[in-house]
Fold this sequence. Notes:
Elements: E1 7-12, H1 18-27, E2 31-36, E3 39-44, H2 46-55, E4 61-70, H3 74-82, E5 96-102, H4 110-129, E6 142-148, E7 152-158, H5 180-189, E8 198-200, H6 207-217, H7 240-252, E9 262-266, H8 269-281, E10 289-292, E11 305-309, H9 317-337, E12 341-347, H10 352-356, E13 362-368, E14 371-379
Parallel strand pairs: 5-6, 8-9, 8-11, 9-10, 11-12
Antiparallel strand pairs: 1-3, 1-4, 2-3, 4-7, 6-7, 12-14, 13-14
Amino acid sequence: MMPAQSGQYFATCPRGLEPLLGEDIAAAGGQEIAIAPGGVGFAGSPEAGYRMNLHSRIATRVLRRVAGADFLNEADIYRLAYDVAWAQLFDVSRSIRVYVTAVRSPFKSNEYITLKVKDAVCDRFRADCAKRPDVNTEAPDVRIHLFINEKQATLYLDTSGEPLWMRGQKIAKVAAPLKENLAAGILRLAGWTPGTPLLDPMCGSGTFLLEAAGMALGDAPGIARDMKDFGFTRLLDYDPSLWKRLCIEAAEQRVMADSLPIWGSDNDDDAVARARQNLAHDGLDDLIELRRADLLEIDPPAESGILIANPPYGERLGEQSALATFYPPLGSALKKRFAGWTCWFLTADSALPKGIGLKPKRKIPLYNGNLECRLYGFDIVSGQHR
Length: 386
């Protein structure tokens, strides 16, 4: 039986990682778990919501349901939002922003629906408090989300604030970085566990390295953020003593280590410098070995382990030509040097397996943002060929 204070939630994540998100929800104490495209619904206490924000490496946002109904027109959307007693959820002094996500929506303009919801929230506050909240599109205190499909509309309060993949770790970034929650999901899909040697030979700003180190040390991914940098801290039912207890418990779970079997490299000096800066900022520079090296020439740091890389996707014609030239020597290098290793590549280029001359043992559909990708896994044996 659910506690009296239980609520309905929907946690979002990169598409393809929903089952892993379901595992995070179960670990946080969520119940009635229902997987859907792009996220997972669940029932849970406020503590389960707090734990998801603090501990889930997969979630993008944790949204708390406040209302939902069928609709016929824009007026029904306005009425749905107006009927919510917003002044019982957050103070009128809090700034707001409304976000609308639509799937097969009958409405032509999401902007107009956004405006209707914003007007309804402000009108209800004015009726209840004789004041209305300010709108802040850059850094709102409270984020209100509306999800609509052909006939149903659901309103949520965002308990996360900034997206949860923003761990507060990176101070130096590279172009087109991999988001942290997608990197964490790839590590889990690849079967990597702490203690297994891990190499990222195209490390960029070090996202895989940071996520793997956090998993190995038992760090809660939300612990590096400011305690008040979560959406639920701006709601009237915020329980600061509960949140403080959970943060203290998470900090006490950290594992001490002198070194980690995690290695990173990149062929670009600037990327290595940025990754090194990020590792140092997170206090990991003494635990992880990082160097400049070419994937085609690097030797494995252990007899066996897991190699994970996010190579260029070849979205432009010139890049496609370059990748076609790069793939055959990559396959040769893996077969020559990485026998005994399992190698994983995230790419939007379906030509990668054929190009490197290896048959993948697994091919997992994933999305990097809106870009459809595949995570290819290869078991490398000496002299392997297609």
